[in-house]
């Protein structure tokens, strides 16, 4: 398959739930795996920026219904659970757009569909947390909408290696995603 970074038209990079306080059951395990994936994600995002692929930060509001981008960034960078290390790295990127999501999928009750339509995006590169939850739900919804997907396994993380591998297998077998590393 043609390298998407060499033909960036109609492509966007989604950064899913990287601004994360990790203050939930299993958060410490997820953070351990996310710490490894964030470096590859930053490199991929920098390459995308260089060729003009828009970066779209999509983040859960973690049940804080009055939250906004500022509040999410503040909560993630002040986390006592260590989320600040990852959040500060991700915030070095200049995302072109920010989408607040109330649930697992980046598409569910958000403006993402409209934004992608406006940008004329047909291909999505998905990165983020957790591979088997929010990345999985987003990938399923993107697939249903006809988007072509690339989900680099080194740019996603789950609470366990088994959860990560389960989701990556699902992406490849069921959603016909491109799943090679970035």
Summarize the structure.
This protein is an alpha/beta fold and 182 residues long. The chain contains six helices and six strands; from the N terminus they run βαβααβαβαββα. Strands 1, 2, 3, 4, 5 and 6 form a six-stranded parallel β-sheet that branches.
Break the fold down into its secondary structure elements and pairings.
Layout: E1 11-16, H1 27-51, E2 55-60, H2 69-77, H3 83-90, E3 97-101, H4 112-118, E4 123-129, H5 131-144, E5 148-150, E6 156-157, H6 161-173
Parallel strand pairs: 1-2, 1-4, 2-3, 4-5, 4-6
Helix pairs in contact: 1-3, 5-6
Level of helix content? 40-55%
Mean pLDDT: 91
CATH topology: Rossmann fold
Strand content: 15-25%
- CATH class identity: Alpha Beta
What's the architecture, going by CATH? Answer: 3-Layer(aba) Sandwich
Shape: globular
Unreliable residue runs: none
Rg computed from alpha carbons, rounded to a whole number of angstroms? 15 Å
What do we call the CATH homologous superfamily?
Answer: Isochorismatase-like
Could you describe the largest sheet, including whether it forms a barrel? Answer: 6 strands, parallel
* SSE pattern, N- to C-terminal: EHEHHEHEHEEH
Strand segment tally: 6
Structural class: alpha/beta
Distance between the termini: 14 Å
Assembly state here?
single chain
């Amino acid at each position: 398959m043609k390298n998407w970074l060499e033909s960036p038209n109609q492509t966007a990079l989604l950064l899913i739930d990287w601004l994360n306080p990790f203050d939930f059951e299993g958060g410490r395990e997820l953070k351990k795996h996310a710490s490894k994936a964030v470096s590859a994600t930053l490199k991929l995002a920098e390459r995308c920026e260089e060729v003009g692929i828009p970066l779209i930060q999509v983040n859960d509001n973690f049940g804080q219904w009055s939250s906004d981008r500022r509040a999410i960034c503040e909560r993630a960078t002040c986390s006592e659970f260590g989320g600040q290390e990852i959040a500060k790295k991700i915030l070095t990127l200049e995302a072109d757009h920010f989408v607040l999501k109330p649930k697992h999928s980046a598409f569910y009750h958000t403006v993402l569909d409209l934004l992608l339509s406006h940008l004329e995006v047909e291909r999505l590169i998905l990165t983020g947390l957790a591979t088997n939850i929010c990345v999985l739900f987003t990938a399923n919804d993107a697939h249903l909408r006809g988007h072509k997907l690339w989900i680099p396994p080194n740019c996603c993380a789950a609470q366990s290696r088994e959860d990560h591998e389960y989701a990556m297998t699902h992406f490849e077998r069921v959603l016909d995603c491109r799943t090679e590393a970035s």
